Amino acid sequence: MENHCMKFLSVLFSICLGLLFFSGAWAGEDVAQGRKLSAELENILARVETRYAATGFSGTFKQVSTLKAMQITDHASGKIFVKRPGKMRWVYEQPDRQIIISDGVSLWIYRPDDYQVMVGKAPEFFGKGRGAAFLSDMKQIRDQFSIFLEAPDDSGDYVLRLIPVEKNFDLSRIYLTISKSGFEITRITTYNEYEDETRIDLTDIEFVRNMDDALFHFDIPEGIDILQFDE
Description:
Elements lengths: L3 H8 L7 H6 L3 H7 L4 H13 L4 E12 L4 E12 L3 E8 L3 E5 L3 E6 L4 E6 H5 L13 H5 E5 L8 E7 L8 E6 L6 E7 L5 E12 L16 E4 L3
Parallel strand pairs: 6-12
Antiparallel strand pairs: 1-2, 1-11, 2-3, 3-4, 4-5, 5-6, 7-8, 8-9, 9-10, 10-11
């Protein structure tokens, strides 16, 4: 069974973390327009950046990953902890236990039931906008993506479409749903070249002033198999 960590990366997050995208959204004029922000879009981004200016935040997540060609959908859920800059901890509780930890430099993916940990470099794993890395530094959104304001969702919340400035086959586009009342990101939907979709819903978001750095470091237990990402 493909573990949810690798879906998180390649299937992308993996939402939706597309060929349709390449046929239109990669057009130079469209991307260029997305770099010129309207007053309304500038205001939304500024409010989001202000909201996430706290040291860190925690919350719960539900993830749905769909491999379009194989018509396979997997569900997962757990808790998330984020601290600026670059620190993240994703604790998958269902259906399989797994922890993804990054201190901004190193990355550990620990599967306790398999007695296994994968070790690598965070910039390589989360590079080019993958893995919702912008959650640990909202200003990455402006630097790494062309941004478009979509029609509001059914609840009236804002929806932004993000297109990577650098062409990336693992990540063709991201949709962010942003609460109109509190300017929190409540949904991240990503697509790759094959239109595989990953949707992550974030709830119970709490902003924290002092978050323990120990959350973002992993001491490998004795007797655990260690795998390198580049092997």
